[in-house]
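Input (structure):
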């Protein structure tokens, strides 16, 4: 169901910004002289609970301990978020040897290997772990399989920080599988004792195809189906599937190194809707909109809402907009912060959140 936000938004926003294009040029790109552009916003979109938690951990650490606070790898895969945190005192490094002795150290939302955690411990670095609780859950699941003697297969993308962290958390290592073809090349110790886990930000459909291939080759294989793929990733993918049924073009706000943002663009393209991944409004090419009157807009789980609003303002330069919301899942998941930050946050769940209501039917993941 589409919910109108209200027509005329673009005309006012464009005038306020003072950078509207010539009307005739804008109408050419809208496709039909005199018609408004309709922009449909996916729901849900943007930040997930794990990203909100990780970003707030860095902000609160800087507030409590003062700058600089060192973060191993980008806290999340979004340039705007990283730049904003850098501006208030975060320093992003590739390896621990770049961090001075005694400096406050944050592990990113993607998690780290046991080797990295052990190195930090040996150096007695004061560590605050911002690993997404859902990623940590995958670590524990893989460890349980390994302890029971299973060959553990990790479905994920080579080189992704989450994959590197997960591989390094499971004793004996894992077999990494990125596509169906990789399954045929697997060599395991015992074909009757194989288990799998997955990266949390994958395409649900692609992952299911790999799982089906694993089940075909190893009939006794055990694993979580696609439940390792986080709720936010699945919700955003389902929203894009719905969005594609209503629009001529899809814009996905997210950085090129964001796995979940790339999946959103791919899903739109697979549904034969021209789809573009953009870091910000500056990446928009007006030529994309030739003959297009309805644009779908979403954002990856690591992209802040302010970037979405800036894209809307940029589209408003083409002329009046009619904004609509595509109804979807309402997310209310909250993750606890590390307890050493509760004092400065004023809450276990951060400054912006009240503790979630508890009921017999509802549970909230915690770190």
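Output (sequence):
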């Amino acid at each position: 169901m589409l919910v109108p936000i209200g027509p005329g938004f673009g005309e006012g926003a464009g005038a306020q910004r003072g950078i509207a294009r010539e009307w005739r040029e804008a109408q050419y790109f809208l496709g039909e002289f005199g018609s408004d552009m309709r922009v449909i916003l996916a729901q849900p979109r943007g930040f997930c609970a794990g990203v909100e938690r990780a970003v707030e951990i860095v902000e609160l650490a800087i507030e409590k301990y003062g700058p600089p606070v060192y973060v191993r790898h980008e806290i999340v895969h979004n340039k705007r978020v990283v730049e904003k945190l850098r501006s208030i005192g975060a320093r992003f490094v590739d390896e621990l040897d770049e961090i001075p002795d005694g400096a406050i150290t944050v592990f990113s939302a993607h998690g780290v290997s046991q080797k990295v955690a052990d190195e930090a411990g040996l150096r007695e670095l004061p560590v605050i772990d911002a690993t997404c609780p859902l990623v940590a859950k995958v670590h524990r699941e893989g460890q349980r399989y390994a302890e029971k003697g299973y060959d553990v297969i990790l479905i994920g993308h080579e080189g992704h920080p989450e994959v590197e962290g997960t591989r390094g958390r499971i004793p004996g290592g894992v077999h990494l599988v990125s596509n169906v073809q990789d399954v045929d090349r697997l060599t395991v110790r015992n074909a009757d004792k194989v288990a799998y886990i997955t990266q949390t930000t994958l395409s649900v459909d692609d992952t299911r195809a790999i799982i089906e291939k694993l089940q075909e080759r190893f009939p006794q294989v055990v694993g979580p189906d696609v439940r390792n793929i986080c709720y936010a990733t699945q919700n955003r993918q389902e929203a894009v599937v719905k969005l594609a049924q209503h629009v001529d073009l899809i814009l996905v706000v997210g950085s090129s190194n964001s796995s979940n943002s790339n999946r959103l663009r791919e899903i739109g393209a697979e549904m034969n809707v021209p789809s573009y991944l953009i870091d910000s409004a500056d990446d928009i090419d007006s030529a994309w909109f030739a003959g297009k009157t309805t644009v779908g807009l979403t954002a990856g789980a690591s992209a802040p809402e302010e970037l979405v609003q800036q894209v809307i303002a940029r589209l408003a330069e083409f002329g009046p907009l009619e904004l609509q919301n595509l109804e979807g899942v309402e997310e209310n998941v909250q993750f606890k912060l590390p307890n050493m930050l509760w004092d400065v946050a004023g809450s276990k769940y951060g400054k912006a959140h009240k503790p979630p209501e508890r009921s017999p039917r509802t549970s909230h993941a915690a770190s």
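Notes: The first helix runs from residue 9 to 17. The radius of gyration is 22 Å.
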